[in-house]
Specification:
mainly alpha, SLATT domain-containing protein
Amino acid sequence: MQLDYDITLEDQIRECFGRVVYTHKTHERMADNCTKKLNRFKVGQIVLTAATSTGAVGVVVTNETWLEVATVLVSFLTLFVTTYLKNFDLGATAQKHRDAAAKLWNVRECYLSLLTDLPALDRQAAVERRDELQTMLAALYQSAPQTDGKAYVEAQKRLQKMEDMTFSADEIDCFLPLSLKRSGGRPKTDEGT
């Protein structure tokens, strides 16, 4: 079968699409990891603050030297955690990754649409659209926060093993009205089709 479009162009667009899928998922994982880390630090901060307060009350009531030393140590740990949270705003970092993922999602969907439309487009129109998407992507990459290897490995696992980006026909049908469902067939029209 002879294709009406340049297969090399399609290959390049498919490659770009794949990279955007991975980058999008990696930023989602980074956002989740930052949020989890922030929550752990916040819980730790609450526990350490409670321990410091309890120790301070205990020192006043019992006048034990070991309790004074323990309270001072816990107080320093509380100071360390508070300083860390002040200097490294994990909540803002998580939001930056969510924002980057949201913008990348749009580019990802545009690449998917381009792949879908490719057979109907003339080569010049396809090249122009590809170039527009690459320009958009370059601007996004320039302003996006850095990701790490851990988030990439998690994204890879979700995409390859957990199939985060794939749906069965039945899963998609659950969200569609009857006239658009594929499983079970489409309803027949009055014209006998």
